[in-house]
Amino acid sequence: MRREVRWAIVAIAALAAGAICAAPYARLAAPYYEAVDRLIAANYPWEIASVDVKAGKTGPSSELRLVGYVRRHRDDPQPAAMIVGHVQVGEAVETPVVFWTLLLIWPAASLRQRVTRLAIGLPVFLVLEAATTACQLIYSMAGISAELAGADDPLTMWDRWSRFLETGGRFAIELGAALLTVSLGSRLPLTSGSPRTP
To answer: I want to staple 102 with a disulfide (CB 3.0 to 4.6 A). Which of 3, 82, 157, 178 is the partner?
Structure first.
């Protein structure tokens, strides 16, 4: 079977798996998104109440939903606003589908190199998830904080990052992260004492 045909079959299988498993994946990943968003919120007058998967209000698809609170000042006893952030589960599952499919179909010189690449890919993937889905869930809290502070232009860097992700930036970052992982995996020696592969 030609390589192009194999790649097409793998890509179709990955897309089908992503469509079928989008909601279960989002439920599995929700605690990670919540932990990342709580870590981000610790630096701001924000509070993350929950991140979970709910039925979508505008269609049949489920969505990841973040519920959080924004205070004017960190020590205020009561929040000034409640925020509900949404990300469709189809968007959330795009990152693992694109990233891991590229890593799995990329040619490797040996099984050892492929396993090394996958091991390197895990921390890269966790950072990628934090930079994409977790940030999209929490970005609106920054805009509300800016409005509460009386900013003339409440458009924040968080808003700009979210817009970048929504206009094709997410795919570009996923692709770049996969290529970075492949490059790092190729630079490591395949066996101890062996020269680097070019």
So the answer is: 178
Q: Tell me how far apart the alpha carbons of residues 133 and 144 are, in angstroms, rounded to a whole number.
A: 19
* Helix 135-148 / helix 3-41 crossing angle, nearest 10 deg: 40
Tokens for 183, please give them.
């490059």
User: What's CA 35's distance to the chain center, in Å?
Assistant: 13
CA distance 62 to 26: 9
Q: How many CB atoms lie within 10 A of CB 161?
A: 17
For residue 86, CA distances in Å to 32, 128, 138, 159 come to 16, 18, 9, 14
Residue 187 banded pLDDT, cuts 50, 70, 90: confident
Count Cα neighbours of 54 within 13 Å in the Cβ-side half-sphere: 13
Start-to-end Cα distance in the chain: 28
Res 193 pLDDT > 90: no
Residue 21 has pLDDT above 70, yes or no: yes
Cα(159)–Cα(141) distance, integer angstroms? 10
100: Cα within 13 Å, side-chain hemisphere: 17
- Model confidence, pTM: 0.84
Give, as one character, the DSSP assignment of residue 149: T
